[in-house]
Design goal:
Blueprint: H1 6-16, E1 21-22, H2 23-32, H3 37-49, E2 53-55, E3 60-63, H4 68-75, E4 91-95, H5 102-114, E5 118-121, E6 124-128, H6 135-144, E7 152-156, H7 161-164, H8 167-171, H9 174-194, H10 200-220, H11 232-257
Antiparallel strand pairs: 1-3, 2-3, 4-6, 4-7, 5-6
Helix pairs in contact: 2-3, 9-10, 9-11, 10-11
Length: 275
């Protein structure tokens, strides 16, 4: 599982929490994950400075509107197969403009990667054209995620085999993605058996970590056609995580109702594990 960082924990919690959260509650949750209060406060200040988190007049914090595209993308872990259609052999292509600073290029490349595109040739990013969304819709989605202005997206129906040779095998780590799904599924199965026997705080942490790892695995899946990457592992993990999410919400509700965090009543709503 990926290590928990103050920044990651704060973004995850605020993404799934329905109301602004006081800093004392964020610090208390961080303590359950072994994070120092000062580290949580510093990370919070930096996130506010970057515009990803906003505070209200009472000193409580929420995810800022600028983070909404990431929130929507993260919540899409359930929709894998619904985002796909049958593949006819065509390739979805995105021509990336030259220029721009390194930070802007990195942000743009991350946006392309979130949609499962990889760089097949210099500045030409590609993926099988099997997503239901059409190029114009995907261009708008890229822009919301920080894609560079001027990205041109189109469907390549007549690319020669010489051009596309090796793309499927070279650009996507199909075996590694499947292995990650399998590991996440095994972790869910083990956790389901013992979750109810754990103390509230331990169950809260475990559900967050196990569920978060599963969701990250699903979000990293490029949603390739089954002829390139069979989707059985993704589908099994999606089904298991859908059920586990409900268990996680129950664990969080029970922990918060019994004041497992700081010895006083809390008003945080149910929180599920997040990537």
């Amino acid at each position: 599982m990926d290590p928990v960082t103050p920044k990651g924990l704060l973004l995850d919690l605020l993404r799934v929490t329905p109301r602004p959260v006081p800093v004392r509650e964020l610090v208390a949750i961080g303590a359950l994950f072994g994070l120092e209060g000062n580290a949580v406060r510093v990370a919070l200040t930096r996130l506010v400075g970057r515009g990803l988190v906003a505070s209200d007049e009472r000193g409580s914090y929420r995810l800022a509107a600028v983070a909404d595209p990431i929130r929507r993308w993260a919540e899409g872990w359930r929709d894998g197969d619904r985002r796909m259609r049958a593949w006819n052999g065509a390739w979805l292509c995105a021509w990336h403009p030259a220029g721009g600073g390194r930070g802007d290029r990195d942000r743009s490349h991350r946006a392309l990667a979130r949609l499962g595109l990889r760089e097949g040739r210099d500045r030409l990013w590609v993926r099988p054209d099997n997503l239901r969304a059409r190029p114009a819709e995907l261009e708008a989605e890229l822009a919301r995620h920080g894609g560079a202005p001027g990205i041109l997206m189109f469907s390549g129906h007549e690319l020669s085999d010489q051009v596309t040779a090796g793309w499927a095998a070279r650009l996507w780590p199909v075996a590694a993605v499947a292995s990650e799904h399998q590991r996440a599924l095994r972790a869910i199965e083990r956790s389901r058996v013992r979750l109810d026997r754990l103390a509230s705080g331990a169950a809260l942490v475990e559900s967050f970590l196990v569920g978060g790892a599963a969701i990250r695995s699903l979000l990293r899946d490029p949603l390739l056609p089954d002829s390139i990457a069979p989707g059985d592992d993704r589908r099994a993990l999606t089904g298991a995580m859908t059920e586990y999410e409900q268990r996680g919400r129950t664990v969080w509700s029970r922990a918060l109702e019994t004041a497992a965090l700081d010895g006083s009543p809390s008003h945080i709503g149910p929180i599920d594990a997040a990537p």
